[in-house]
Design brief:
Helix 4 crosses helix 10. Helices cover 32% and strands 20% of the residues. Strand 3, helix 2 and strand 4 form a beta-alpha-beta unit.
Length: 259
């Protein structure tokens, strides 16, 4: 059975950088059993109703501006697996989760940056999934849980976002110092994830120290993918922090394995 993962996608620059974090994700892809398909929830695809992609071949969305021109030439032409999409549709239906099917949207950078680091040849089918920050954490967890059986079928479930993601608070000098409030928030999060303490995690916004800085209202969509990934491993309820580093003082690069 494959685990599920929460992987921070960081800055789009990760797609062309060689650093500790990109090397870690490269190695992770090499060491995992090769999946039959990948289901990925991206913080950069928000929708009020759960979206399931059924795209023959994805375009590559360059949904950012002002970066190195090399970023805009990158393509990740992954294909879909319609049998897996159909299975997801059946699972959502069986669990009473409203959804709709999307047949045109490409992969945003929350998806393709992570996928390209893991599997650079775009040769594994991908089913892209949206997230909804308006839902409660319990509802987000339930969506992930509805897909947990896919892990028994060699299907890799990934949620892409960022646990501490406040663009207004970044230290662009990037001098290697970690902002104290970000570290305090991440330590609280790690403790409760390791305990699988859903009661606390579902109320992170009122219980976690500095949550208002780490997960501001304009950045909530980056934090909540972690609940989709956790739900997908509800049958095992085991969390392991594989990597954690910081960029620009408070932007967390973390990889959590669940299951």
């Amino acid at each position: 059975m494959l685990p599920s993962f929460f992987i921070a996608h960081g800055s789009p620059l990760l797609a062309i950088e060689n650093n500790e974090y990109t090397h870690f994700i490269n190695d992770l892809g090499k060491n995992l059993p090769r999946p039959k398909a990948i289901v990925i929830f991206s913080a950069h695809w928000e929708s009020p109703v759960q979206q399931v992609s059924e795209v023959e071949q994805y375009s590559t969305i360059h949904d950012f501006g002002g970066f190195d021109p090399a970023l805009y030439t990158i393509q990740y032409p992954a294909k879909c697996n319609h049998d897996v999409s159909k299975e997801i549709i059946d699972l959502l239906t069986a669990n009473g989760i409203p959804f709709s099917v999307e047949t045109k949207r490409g992969l945003d950078h929350g998806s393709w940056v992570v996928l390209r680091l893991l599997y650079p040849y775009a040769d594994i089918p991908v089913i892209a999934m949206s997230v909804n920050p308006i839902l409660t954490p319990q509802e987000q967890y339930k969506i992930g849980k509805s897909l947990s059986v896919l892990r028994d079928k060699d299907i890799l479930i990934i949620a892409s976002g960022g646990t501490s993601h406040n663009l207004m608070a970044l230290n662009w000098a990037d001098n290697g110092e970690i902002t104290p409030w970000a570290l305090e928030f991440e330590d609280w999060l790690a403790h409760h994830l390791h305990q699988w303490d859903l009661d606390s995690l579902f109320h992170y916004d009122s219980l976690a120290p500095n949550a208002q800085y780490a997960v501001p209202p304009h950045g909530k969509e980056h934090f909540i993918p972690i609940f989709y990934a956790m739900g997908a491993a509800d049958d095992v309820q085991k969390a392991k922090l594989l990597h954690r580093s910081f960029r620009y003082g408070s932007l967390t690069h973390s990889v959590w394995q669940f299951g």
